Every structure is written in structure tokens, then in C-alpha cells.
Amino acid sequence: MPVVLFTCAGQRVDVIEAFAAAGATTVATDVSRYAPTLHRAEQSALVPRFGDPTYIGALAELVRRHNVDLVVPLTDLDLRVLAAGRAELEPALVLLPGREVVELTADKYRAHVFFDERGIASPATWLPENPPAEIDFPVLVKAREGFGSNHIYRAYDRRQLDFFLAYTSVPSMVQRACRGTEFSIDVFCDLEGRCLNAIPRTMIHSKGGESIKGMTIRDAELIEFGRAVAETLGLAGPATVQCFREPDGRLEITDVNPRFGGAFALPTAAGSSYPELALALAAGERPEPRLGEFTEGVVMTRFFSQVVLTEGPDDTLVPFEPRAASDERM
Fold first, then answer.
1. 304-325 pLDDT tens trace
2. How far is CA 151 from CA 35, 168, 171, 203, in A?
3. Residue ranges of the domains in the chain?
4. What gap in Å lies between CA 327 and CA 288, rounded to an integer?
5. What pTM, to 2 d.p., does this model score?
6. Strands 93-94 and 125-126
7. Which overall architecture, per CATH, does domain 96-121+179-330 show?
8. Which CATH architecture has domain 3-94?
9. How far is CA 65 from CA 43, 136, 220, 287, in A?
10. Residue 299 neighbours by CB under 8 Å, 6+ apart
11. CA pair distance 241, 330, nearest whole angstrom
12. Across 12-62, where does the E strand assignment appear?
């Protein structure tokens, strides 16, 4: 069975279970023993924080110990570290594009310039020091690097814009606020940068930048847009392309995250087979593109669940099995 190591696994039980269902042995890593994934994967390990100089070495030791075939990052936190240290994790395949692509997508202003130069529409964007005198408000003050909708402020006039530029604590940019309908496109590319599939979904409801409710749609323009963005960037593995369809019908890209998206469960339910494709790449196979092969009209509405634990031997956490009420009375 192929062995998959997940980094910064956190709460991504959905991804862990999907790979297990695809036939993989799962190994989850995190810095906290309370991460739910550590208690749902077949194997688990605590590792240093991603900024620690020993982080890659700790992962490399797990690769050797468990004969790992594939390394899958589950958040944005350690993408740069993994892209830079992938040679130390061989022979495991790190499911990420090249370091330059990871760096580009991490910096939203650089990504805007990249897409603009290649004819892929992106909302008008300026650095804080040079917004034009005449701006069509509202605009967004956005962190150049960030995730989870952190450090994003909406300004409706010049006074608010000046305030938020002075208020924000991180390097930022100014971007015209889109007025249309937002979509996400879950794409998956092979190691040559070919887009194997692109599955658009609506954003019925999102919270903290993560989709809570959505539906897959068969929209040929969005499918082609996702493919064009993925192949222009030279992605490898999964990514989420976020875009708006503006009132004039034009698609404008706002973000690309080169990892499995927070709404991973929706394209999975719609038949993406992305875990199976990832395992095929790790095995040296070359799957053929299957653009448009998914079920449309699949709706996802998410809810909280939990793993209930108790203290075990040697400072471990083990599943908690509550006693039945009848047992309490005995």
C-alpha cells in the first residue's frame, strides 16, 4: 500500500480519510497532540514548527521510518519550506509545484502582475505607495501574503483607504473590489503541469475565507479558465483557483492556493478522484486529462464534528469511550 505523509495536518480529517479510502496508509504530522488528524490517521507524529530549522529533518526521518511515497501539505504554512527542502525528502514525492511557483502564488501582488502580463484578467491592483488619484471605490486593502481572509479591509472612500493603509500591520496592496459572483475551481495537475481536471463550484456561504456551503457546476468557461490558469502557472498537484464573474461577464482571478482547498470534500464527492490521481503520480504513472469528468449539482453543507479523547499511558491521548448510563448505576 502507498504511504502518504501529511504535514500541518490539523483539522483536515476529510483529506486523511479520502486518501485512506483510495488505498493509502496515512501518516499525519502536527505540532499539537490535540490535532484531530493525529487520531484519525493510521500513524501519527509530533514534529517541530515549520519555521524550526529541524523541521525538514524531522519529516525526512519519518519518510525513512515509514517508507513514505508521497508528502501532502494541508495548509499554506509550510509550502515554501517543503518546496525548498524537497530534495531532503526523497525518494518521497512532495505534492507541490516548483519553488518559484510557490513563491509567486504566496505573494498576491506578484501573482496579479504575473497574470496581467499573460492576459489573464485580474482586478486592478496597486501597491500602497501608488494608488491613482481617482479610484472607483470600494477597494480592498489586502495582505500581500496571507490566508483565511486575515488582514483584509474594505474601504468605501479615500478617508477609509488612508486609514486602513495606516492601520494594517502587514505588507499590503490595494485592489478593486469585485462586484460579481465568486467561484472556486478545484484543479489538479500532473508533474508536467498538464491540468488533469478542473471542477468549478459556487460559493453559497463562506466563513473566514473557507467554503461552508457550495455546489459543483458544469460551466465550460470556468473549467477552461481553471485549466488555463493552472497550466500558465505550471502547477503540480492540487490547487484552488478563486475568481469572480463580473457583471460584464469577464472572469477575474483573485487568488491561487497550491494545495487541497478547504472545500476538498465537495469535489471529492463529485468524483474528482484527486487522491487516486495523487497516488498515481507518486507511483510514476502518467494519468490522462479528464477535464469535465465530475458530477454537477452536488451540494455540500458543512458542520462541526469531533474526536473525543482521554489521557492514556505515557502522556498519550486515546479514544474516550463513555460508560453507558446503566453502567454508572451499577
1. 899 999 999 988 999 998 876 5
2. 25, 7, 10, 21
3. 3-94, 96-121+179-330, 124-176
4. 57
5. 0.94
6. unpaired
7. 2-Layer Sandwich (3.30)
8. 3-Layer(aba) Sandwich (3.40)
9. 11, 57, 45, 29
10. 213, 214, 215
11. 58
12. 25-30, 43-46
